[in-house]
Amino acid sequence: MSAIEVLNVLNKLLKKYQVPFGIAIWGFTESGTAKEIRVDEQGRLYVVGDFTAEIDFSELMGPENRSLTDIYEPLSSYLPHIDIPLSTVSRSRVYEQTFETGESDLTAVNCIQTVQSTEVYAGTYALQVTIPAGQTGYVETPTRPISPNQRIIFSFAHKEDINITNVKLDVVWYRPNLKELKVDEYTLTPSTSWQVDFRDVAAPKGAAYMALRMQATASTTSDGNVYLDDMFMDIAGQIFRFDGAGNLMSSVQNFPDWFSGSTKTTDDLFTKLSLLSNVTSRFAIFTSRTLAAGEEFTVVQETGRGLLREFLIRSPDTSFKVTITVDGLTAFEKTYDEIRAIEQNSPDISAFAELDENGDPTGYYIVSIRNIPFYTGLTVKVQNTGTTSLTFNQLFAKYFISIT
User: Fold this and answer.
1) The dihedral sign for the CA sequence 99, 101, 102, 108
2) Contact predicate 366/318, CB 8 Å
3) The pLDDT of residue 282
């Protein structure tokens, strides 16, 4: 079977089953290659991935009497040629302190901090931390918001005088309520000359914020001094490539002219395929919606085939419940606290306290539920489970629906 014939099969699938691109035909791994295509015992093709959808091939054989193998083998051989290449590791600076303003934003505990210009690693100023003789003290950076399993890279320059007996770096992980979750300790080697330490860590489950704590102990004979400079903290991770218009880039190789060019955006591919499958995007947006105690509100109610791309709630209170009915069955019914408990284990569910650009709580709580396919119908509802009225700042839904 040629590539053209494979594409013809895909076209038939899209026409017959009104399947939006990317849901039931193929998925992508973290490395960007197509996920495995399998045929089950009933002869149904499905993708092993975030979307698990089934397609009955029995009516697609046509007069040629093609077997499942005839379709499956060439299809699976061509799918790896569609991938979404990832960029190299991206680093976003979330904290930087060089003390060049002459001020410090660190918090001192059982010690005195002074921005000075005598002992400096780079630039004009550095921080001097003085610890009383025989005691232990520390300075701590401001907290920064993070997510569980997020990778954080940080570095700092430090030196100690001869009266410092030991030095530790503590990575402090905080819960959403800013209570300590855990502390990871790293023992450093005191040095009377400047040295730069690097660390690459991953946030633990349940962490919402982090801070760095430099701790030292002075000898019993005299006060000790630790000097700090050039403190940097980056959030790191792999990201998708985007073109100049902000479209996600997709590399398409060894495919016929229907996918012409060496690079196409997924928007381009979706536009072409949506012409075949009659898929359209729809939105539901409600702002400042007030519900009485116990009242339920329907945000989305659709019949047909499609995909709930995202349902988002922004609320000043956590006393609410989300109910999502898929194909006549209740597929999701959770309160905010229940969603918060399970979101760590799902890439398509988020629940958290919103923070402003300075990392401070805004007083709002966010819930986001994504990527739920439906075949005969979808209903999305939110209910006020509290004892007083609740005004939702925003209720937002984006979804794809097949039209005839």
Assistant:
1) negative
2) no
3) 84
Read off φ and ψ for residue 55, nearest 5 degrees: -135, 130
Measured CA to CA, the distance from residue 305 to residue 358 in angstroms comes to 42
Is residue 235 a contact partner of residue 94, using CB atoms and an 8 Å limit?
yes
- How far, rounded to the nearest angstrom, does the alpha carbon of residue 95 sit from its chain's CA centroid? 20
Same fold, 90-239 and 280-402: yes
pLDDT of residue 358: 76
- Residue 232: strand, helix, or coil: strand
Segment (H or E) for 203: none
CA dist 163 and 184 (Å) reads 25
Q: Which fold has domain 90-239?
A: Jelly Rolls (2.60.120)
- Quickly list DSSP for 283-297: EEEEEEEEE-TT-EE
- In sequence order, the β-bridge partners of residue 135 are none
Domain residue ranges of the chain, discontinuous segments joined by +: 1-85+241-277, 90-239, 280-402
Count CB neighbours of 235 within 10 A.
Answer: 21
**What's the rounded Cα separation, in Å, for the pair 382 and 384?**
7
Neighbours of 44 (CB within 10 A): 15
Q: Centre a 10 Å sphere on the Cβ of residue 234 and count the other Cβ atoms it contains.
A: 19
- The encoded tokens of residue 282 equal 């729809």
Give the architecture (CATH level 2) of 280-402: Sandwich (2.60)
Q: What is the pLDDT of residues 80-113, one digit of tens each?
A: 444 333 334 556 788 999 999 999 999 999 999 9
SS3 226: strand
Tens digits of residue pLDDT in 162-173: 999 999 999 999
Band of residue 21 on the pLDDT scale cut at 50, 70, 90: very low
Query: Which residues touch 189 (CB under 8 Å, ≥6 apart)?
Result: 167, 195
Model-level pTM?
0.42
Per-residue pLDDT, 222: 95
At residue 1, the 3 state secondary structure works out as coil
- Cβ–Cβ < 8 Å for 289, 395: yes
